[in-house]
Design brief:
alpha/beta; 8 strands; 45% helix; eight-stranded mixed sheet; Rossmann fold
């Protein structure tokens, strides 16, 4: 069913991995697709090659679809502005953005350099801002637009050696929520998707023991990029009347995440001071504290698929 017939979708990072599958799926469901990919390495923010994006475009065209390639850098707002104009000029408009473009620079915080921090935030958080900033007026004018911004359980839950990545991804959660609130009167939707899929990013994970190695092997076989792509494309469909949410796709499982709300409060007549906070306040709240853990502890079961 061509649920995206007549729509144009920009897919960033569309040359490989999840982005590639998103571009192919968008075309399969009737969209014209602007396939953006810098063509660089996993840790690179420098220009690479338009080759990966062009390969996906060629595949879409061979199947009878319409697509164009772009080699711009989402971390540069002028590049993203050019993507928007290219979509309008070559593909007749722009109605949605799927934004999985990303890099990793995993290192524990005490060893992390400013360059490690800045480069990851530039691509993920600044890149997401650039996407929204350069498209929002167009979406407002046409009273239609959809953003699928990519988050991560590294931010939602936490993960070792990913302070830069986690901070960027949680920034995207806040950005998406405000875009959804501000855009609702103009039919502009924004949702966050935290993907579980075996991509080049997952290949960078080094197992610490045989048990972890076996688990990673099972994940590689059951968590595919195309499963994430189907859901990302569904969120772009006009009939998906949903905004401001956080989802994850893990194999054949779709998860809706909670968002921060108060879970417990305490009061004290006369107010609190440091001593009463230490003696009574914090101990009263402690049973409701969230535990420190990593995604594997929250998802101890094998992916469904």
């Amino acid at each position: 069913m061509a649920v995206l017939e007549g729509k144009t979708i920009l897919v960033t990072g569309g040359g490989r991995g999840i982005g590639r599958e998103c571009a192919l799926a968008a075309a399969k469901y009737g969209a014209k697709v602007l396939v953006n990919d810098l063509g660089g390495g996993m840790a690179s923010t420098e220009d690479g090659s338009i080759g990966p994006a062009q390969e996906v475009v060629d595949e879409i065209r061979a199947a009878g679809g319409a697509a164009a390639a772009n080699g711009g850098n989402v971390a540069k707002i002028e590049d993203v502005a050019q993507m928007v104009e290219q979509a309008k000029d070559e593909l007749g408009g722009l109605h949605g953005v799927i934004n999985p473009a990303g890099i990793l620079r995993d290192v524990t915080l005490h060893k992390m350099t400013e360059a490690d921090w800045d480069s990851v935030l530039a691509v993920h958080l600044r890149g997401s801002f650039n996407i929204v900033k350069t498209t929002i007026e167009h979406f407002r004018e046409q009273r239609e637009g959809s953003y699928v911004l990519f988050g991560s359980t590294a931010g939602l839950i936490g993960n070792v050696a990913q302070a830069n990545y986690a901070a960027a991804k949680m920034g995207i959660v806040g950005l998406s929520r405000v875009v959804a609130i501000e855009g609702q009167s103009r039919n502009i939707r924004s949702n966050v998707l935290a993907p579980f899929a075996w991509t080049r990013m997952m290949d960078s994970v080094v197992p610490q023991n045989d048990e972890q190695a076996a688990r990673l092997d099972r994940m590689k076989k059951t968590m595919r990029a195309d499963q994430v792509a189907e859901f990302a494309v569904a969120l772009c469909a006009p009939s998906a009347d949903i905004s401001g949410q956080i989802y994850a796709v893990r194999g054949d499982e779709i998860l809706l995440f909670s968002q921060p709300r108060p879970i417990r409060s305490i009061s004290r007549i006369g107010g609190w001071d440091v001593n009463s906070i230490l003696e009574a306040g914090l101990p009263s709240l402690k049973p409701s504290n969230m535990e420190l853990c990593v995604p594997a502890a929250v998802f101890p079961y094998d992916p469904i698929g």
